Fold:
Amino acid sequence: MKEFLYAVVEMIAKIHRFLLRMNDAYEYDFTDKELHFLIIGALGMAMIFVVHPLFKWLAKNNHVMAISWIYVFTLIIVITFAIEIGQRITNTGAMEFADIMFGVLGFISMFLVFSVFRGIYHVILGLLRHEAAEEPEYEEWEG
Structure:
């Protein structure tokens, strides 16, 4: 995971250097803030065009839990990075990628346990509904 995160950081750095070279080569003279405005804005819109249809499909096919998981997983990543950066700034701990990995792994592990219990619950509920649907209806006896 550490190697993956470093690879992502390196890829972002390469893209950043490329955009700065393009800015200099074509003499646009965008400031760093203007470049962030344009690039992050465009990236966000590109993500909307991918994420929105995916979430619509998931919701339409009754996979709302998947939407919740994606959202919470994203928040967990942001929160764990924020905690590590905060530790670095305040000198209250060491900033380590391993801490981020273990935090994310904790969420995934606990979610898997939750999923097992949720699955058992839904199986039992399905069996109860199935049995209720098979019970014959009794007609009242008129005597």
Notes: The mean pLDDT is 88. Residues 97-134 form the longest helix (38 residues).
